[in-house]
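Lab notebook, bench 4. Still working through the backlog of constructs that have no structural model yet. Next entry is a single chain of 504 residues. Request: give me the structure tokens for it.
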Amino acid sequence: MAGTVFLFSVAFSAAEESLLPAQSAMEQVPESPDLLYPDRAPREATRKVTAADWLKIIREQIPPLTHPRGNRWPLLIIAGVGFEPLPVAEIRMLLERGITQHLELKSSAIGAARRLKEAGAPVILTDGRNGAWPYNLEKDKTQWAHQYPAKLDVQPHWRDLPSPPLFRGWAVAAEQLRTTLNRFRQEQVPVDAIWLDYENEPSTANYYAAILSPSTLALMPPQAVADEASFRRYSRQLWIQLLSTYIAGPAREMFPKVSITNWVVTLSSPERPVLGWMNEPHPPMGATLFTATNPVAYGIDTAFLALWQKSYRLDQEHVDQFYSHILLRQVSADSANRQQQAPYLASIPWVGRWVADHPDKRVPILSRERYREVLRHLWLRGIDGMQVFNPVESTATLDMAVAEVQDAAAVYDEMLAYRDFLEKGTVLQLAHPAIQEDAALWSGLRLQDEAIVRLFWQGGAIGSLEIEPWPGSKVTLSSPTRGATFRLRRDKKNNTIEIVSVRR
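Model written out:
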């Protein structure tokens, strides 16, 4: 198959964060009465949003799907219905809306997992970690942390940072995972997916802390510490391999068919690099023991603060163009690399219209109309599911969180009308407009002699676009509005293409 609030962190690496002031072309965040900004005004009697609140919201504000989901993954929303066992009727209410409960990666979740199975829902386990975990699971600190001469004056916290090449704590984590999952096996509760948010060391490893530690330096390949860029590349590649070996591997030992992925596990290549928020290319990575990639499609303020230029037109259309580019590029690059290197891998991206790493800054956001448009294109670029980032800590931010779920569920239902294409189709193209470009954006899937194509015009003009859905067979599409979905059929004998239907 292609209340307590569980919050994953929204972090980017410390190395990336340090780039922000130098790379940002903005002296201050622009403001305009014509732009959209997040509504974060505190409400009267602000309180925590509970699981019961979310069940009521989803039941009353998210309509049931109008198209069958089949065996496709339901949407995972991070803020929602908690981890306690739900009544079967409530689980089915969620599934009817294309949404599911996810559970913590703990043996205490077995009861709730059994209830999910009874209701016909997949068991999806989630977990989030950062910092020195799992290095610090090794009790002997000399076996996992940087060691410095007593007289060397270094930052005090450096002595608590892991030495990247020491893996004993990772071995402990692997055994803990095996123990937890074996309890699910013993209780005959299969786990369908483990979707993780491990943003831990060594992905954020500090170059200077490493090279000043004689014990660490002695274990590092010379090429990996030649300079800071080389160290960052080495650390990120090592991080993925450690996750693959000590997390994905044990999970698949216990449940060979499990879907497993982790935050920003993607396929990057020199020809089609996956880019981070500040345009930094992720190092080349091939397939690992993960069964799915996890690119990120966020309307994140970090990217806006780093990449918005004073020369850009400051209106909502061009803010939308900016975020559309950011949301499309990781999924598109990852999909292109998967097609070439590992077409057997699935992709379960994170999506979010509004993500605030810098809540103290007033940053314009993507419009809901354009966000829904981008979500359509993501589905047509070879993904298999979505994890929806809708964080909410209190009623002060509830409207934004609910809108995230409404938009993702509505577009999911719309695209389920083409479920056969989503499950069996071939991606037609993965290009997308530049960060500021009035241009056509199109995506599509081909299945035998039919194709689904979504065409959207950025900017003011609405024109015609010639595409080639099948080799040697071209068709010109003219959208009746800025955006439309075309169903095409090829006549192989006459080498012609018929437009079967057009849907706004």
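Notes after review: Residues 228-254 form the longest helix (27 residues). The first strand starts at residue 75 and ends at 77. Flag for follow-up if needed.
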